[in-house]
Amino acid sequence: LERPQMFTPVGSCYRALTRHLGVFEDSSWPKNTDVQWRLLALSRGLTLDLPRPFRAPYIPGLTVLIPHYGESILLEKEELYKDRVSLGDGEVVPLMSWIEYRYDEEFKAFTSRMTSLNGSWARAGPRWAAYNDSEWEKLNIWASMRSQTLWRTVAGMMLYHQALECHYQLQGDTACSMGRSESWSVSEIFTCMVSMQMYPFFKAVQFQHTNMMLDKFPKSLQIAFIDYEEKGPDADRDMVHKNQKRRYFSCLIDKDCIQDGTGRREPRLRVELPGYPILGDGKGDNQNHAIPFTRGMFIQAIDANQGAYFEQMLLLPCVLGEFRSSGQTGQAQSRKIIGFPEHITSDIGTIGDFAAGAETAFGTILQRSYAALGGRMHYGHPDMMNKIWIIQQGGVSKATKTVNLSEDIFAGLDWTLRGNGRKIQHTEYFHLAKGRDLGFRTVLLFFSKLSAGTGEQLLTRQIARLGAQMGLPESLTLYYAHGGFYLTQFLLSKGIPMLVFIWLLVLLDDAESSFGAFDARALMMGASASSVMAKFLISQFGRVMLLFLVAGTAPLLLEISIENGLTFAIVRCIKQFVTLSPLHFIFQAKTIGSYVSNEILYGGASYVATGRGLPTERRGFIGVRKKSGVAGLYNDYASIAFYDGAELVLAVCLALMAGGLDVDPDLYASMGWWGLVLAMTIASWLWAPFIFNPYHFKTENLRKDLEDWIHFFRIRVPTGEDDVKSWEDWYGSTQLKAGEGIRSSPCAALTWLIYLASWYTVLVNKTQLVSVVYSWKISGMLAQVMVLMPPVFLSSGLCVVLDLLKRHRGLVLQDRLMLIACCVVACDVVEAVVTLSLLMTIGWTKCAIAGVVFKYSFISMLLVLCEVLFRVMKKETMDRGNVVVTSLERWLLAHRMIRDVVVSSLILLGLIPGALLEMLFDRSCGCKYTLHNLLVYRDPGHPDNAEETHAQGQGDARPRGYTSLGLSSVPVAGGDYCHSAGRGCSSARRRCSSPRQPRWGHGAPCAPGRGWAVRASGPSGVHGWPQTPAKVCKMGTCSLLGGAFPDGVFAASASA
What we know:
The chain is built from 39 helices and 14 strands. The strands form 3 sheets. A 9-stranded mixed sheet has the order 5-4-3-2-1-6-10-8-11. A 3-stranded mixed sheet has the order 7-12-9. Helix 20 (483-508) packs antiparallel against helix 22, helix 33 (793-809) packs across helix 37 (883-925) and helix 34 (817-841) packs antiparallel against helix 35.
């Protein structure tokens, strides 16, 4: 056999110039990046020190354990392709179009293969409505294999079965009795165990998909689930507890089990459980109940969003060889947990690329270092462990509710706690695929779950004991690898506000510029407060930031350059910065810091189902529809980031008013780095969720957001099923939570005390100085009282008067909370201006600003105390409706509503420039794509709805609901559309005029002025079209490939 050209030995210089730098094209090297990675990963792995593999039939038993709860098993047509009428409010692109666009070459190969196998296969390309039901079954499987589905995970894990069969056929010991074909079976040593927690509650379509999976794959695939039945008359005899309502069983099914009328299979084995089985957060219990059904000594923990590659599965005998003891079985040197790197496949779009880069850094680069330093633990996937040892020393998964939210890591913690120099191995030559979250919200939900779990993990006895027993290097490694990362994110999120607080405090404590004697004294002392703070901030934020930026990016850059070449790595890193990765990671740090601190202070961690779908849906600004149950971006992140972002804007504005930039020109120029950091932090905390929200800046979407904003703050009591949720409903259910108990901590109280004490000290010193300097004009006691008095008397009196008028005069206050809130805050402002007017008249601006900050902070503390009071107050007391309670509630709601109105208005104003830029770009360039789509998807986008509607009226135009991601559909003469590869601009459109240009997948010619025309921008054209008509497949022949295809169907490459 002739060796393939790609395996021809080449020199290192040639390889660097062609494959790594891309200076020259290597015709023997495949263009598909996934194929490139698989070849390079296999070749790198084979150069490493591989242990002696096991030989069939002496390969020890292995069970792959996959917990499943609600993840998609197999995608359906309704999920992949929906008509425009049935699409959600925000969804624009059908999922099938996403997948076809992302795997364009593979879809062409799939179409060619289906056509060769089935001559009647519809050659419709992306016209999804043209496929019949039987063809959609094939399309569903094809799409599921390229999505994060259970089908893809099981299909990948079942490659173990094929790999072991290959080992047996090629090097099996058939001479022994165990190795004879009639004695040895792969199913006896390998089991793929899917633990389906919700199997008894499946719908008919889920039972259908499960049965399809069992019928498709070998008998090695088995399913464990928890079943239940009523106690029955034998409960007392079986000593079932009297308070137990049902009897629960761990059940096992496989493809040989019979089905009932609903598609559910009767279990082959049942093990009764000693009570209700779900004691924790679900996943740990789901894994543990299936352990009795596992076979063999080893378990590999796999998540339901992973995949595998056949060439990697062939290395399984070597991986199992890692567990061999260096001496007698049971010695400490014997490895019991082995971890592997993951290949992240979900790098679609900007957020997908960010998440993939972060997962590559954590799952590959850092784990390699942690294993060498002794700080690596078990992370659930795709680690392999010795079941016999682990179940005796802590278990595979801890399942105590809340404490073990991150259930998988405790297997590694408990194993390491046994001492004797035990370490967890990290093996580089074996890889599995891994899918990550793709949307901004789902990524943050994932990190919120990890942060809350880490907060609970830091409080456990395992961490305390490891910290006490480990040496300093190992202890520092453990800290950095686990809790240290999340605590560092918390410190980063608090660092900028703390510096702004110090900046403002020092500026306002400085001498007043309007008082000449102070100016002379300041000159004698050497420098003003603004200059001192400027030098301090410059020392922290300067050109050295670039060094930290390069140092943080270098590991990922080097890892990608090794895997895909230096050019690819540099381009990818540049793309990340251009697509605003700093804004995403700053907001991510804020989210992590919020969750980990709240968990340590208050507790209450719970499992969060993130979902890993493609980010094709736009999330509204404010969620107002009760029926949909979908919150908006403001509802999601108001308490996490938006409030702090608005307060940071206010603090910076006050610092500028206090002369924060009144410094020398040299210092002023150097303050640019500090300004850049402030601008990025504010932009991220206020606008990052909207920047990465798909289709957010479309004019019609922003108009709807404005309408929802008006309804949210004006409508109070909705009626009917299509009502909107009011602000009061949202605030009461998500932030106030009246009657649910106190949620505060001594640390929070201490923070408020230190903060108010700082401003109190500044104001007392300044007011005393005022009373001394202006003793003939101002009383010292009066000045201090006026400056320090919180502006709450007018507003609280107004609330009491309104409540009395409602009780005795029948004043209607319903649906008038906005008006009341404006009046209440106006009273606060008037009271604050009156009490500080004395300082303004004498020109003590800094003292007046400090008074504003103190009064605002004092009111904020009182509002927090009111919320705490309502949380601890009993519902009966609140329902009595006395004057004090109702007036206090109205005062609280008025201030909180104004806060949300101001913060949301600030965010909306900041979104206007983005909308105007999109509109200007659209009108000036004539493009049907948006810059925002280019940012979010790294792809130009989709055509206007008007053109799509026009296309829907034509018989052979694009299907209803289809949106092209890389091509534009533009009207041509005769009512049909022409395709353009010019990325959307009008200059790339042209009329379909040639009578020999076929439509997608057909050899039939189109009449002049009708059909689809192609203007190719690349060597292979668009959607597989050759660049010139001479290379188009015509009536069964293709000059490009030299082969015959039925009905003019062509393929893009010889591999197809």
